[in-house]
Amino acid sequence: MASVAMRPLVAAAPVRRAALRLPALGVGARAVGPAAGPGAAADAEVAPGSGPLYRRAKRALLQVIEQGACAPGTALPSEAELARTLGVSIGTLRRAVDELVADHVLVRHQGRGTFVATHDAERFLFQFFHVERADGRRESPQVELLAFHRQRLDDADAAEALRLREGEAVLVVENRLTLQGRPVVHDRLVLPAALFRGLTEKRLAERPGTIYQLYQSEFAITVLRAAERARAIAADRSAARVLGVPVGAPVMQVRRTALTFGDKPVEYRVSVVNTARHDYVHVLSRPSRGN
Fold first, then answer.
1. What is the CA radius of gyration of the chain?
2. What percent of the chain has pLDDT over 90?
């Protein structure tokens, strides 16, 4: 029997917890601390003229995250501390956090706490990549960078999606995505150059993770969600060449606008998908918000 070298146990790294400066939102002592509990009465707390307190608590947390006071991967303070700081009940705070978890801004880790969500391969695969083999097999694609260049925006659809004027500087990226050894997706991305200063072809090609990880870690841009429109088209010469299909073959075109905080657009992407062996699958349900 081969011997196995035993490695010494290493204590887990301490969790980094953010020290947040938040406004007090409560309307009195009844709203403060865990005694109020997570019931409906706490969720119904209202500050005069400003709507339910859980909505205000959500906005307060979202603001400090958007401003970078709580970096991706950082743990929030404890529920009791946050509730006390905001002047709301634990129930109100939990409802606010529930919504931010549903919005993929926060993530809960059992036994460790609530963290600002980070982009990784798993999140990309299940939130932003919807192509899978017809038999249900899903995997991360192999990405081949085909082109990278800076130009003046000359695409009216991209200009509208990104809220830019034609002629503004943009970065254009083309990728081929391969699944099970077959080219399946041709992506063309348009990025506002002003948001991605310093992005180069080398930096993009040598990124260690997904492109949304790069946006978040290198440019402080967190993609929270995406708006998509899909339709059937005939493959043009460019798509036919990249995907290895005949010109005119039926393919699916997906136009995506990636959005960050405040629904600000940060990327416009046109994907052409060869659906001969693969489907475009999108799960419409989302985690409960406690309603």
1. 23
2. 52
User: Which tokens go with 276?
Assistant: 């001969």
Q: Which residues constitute the domain of residue 59? A: 29-116
104 CB-side CA count, 13 A: 18
Place of tokens 């919504």: 99
Reported as a single tens digit per residue, the pLDDT across 85-126 is: 888 999 999 999 999 988 888 888 888 889 988 887 777 666
250 lies in some domain: yes
Asked if residue 1 belongs to a domain, the reply is: no
In a domain, 235, yes or no: yes
Q: What CATH number has the domain bearing residue 100?
A: 1.10.10.10
The rounded distance, in Å, linking the Cα atoms of 225 and 134 is: 25
Collapsing DSSP to helix, strand or coil, 285 comes out as coil
| CA dihedral for 33, 39, 43, 45, sign (positive or negative) | negative
Alpha helices in 166-236 (DSSP H): 201-205, 211-219
HSE-CB for 248 with a 13 A CA cutoff: 0
Cβ atoms of 29 and 86 closer than 8 Å: no
**CA distances to 21, 81, 124, 133, 202 from 281, in Å:** 41, 41, 14, 10, 32
Q: Are 76 and 83 in contact (CB under 8 A)?
A: no
Looking at the domain assignment, is residue 168 inside a domain?
A: yes
What's the number of domains the chain is made of?
2
Give the pLDDT confidence score for residue 64 in this predicted structure.
84
Domain end among 87, 116, 145: 116
Please tell me whether residues 270 and 128 are part of one structural domain.
Answer: yes
Q: Residue type for 152, please?
A: R
Closest CA to 242 of 272, 268, 267: 272
Question: Is there a contact between 245 and 239 (Cβ–Cβ < 8 Å)?
Answer: yes
Beta carbons of 223 and 258 less than 8 angstroms apart: yes
pTM for the full model? Answer: 0.76
Q: Are residues 50 and 95 in the same domain?
A: yes
For 227, other C-beta atoms within 10 Å of its C-beta total 12
Q: What tokens appear for 129 in the block?
A: 């990549």
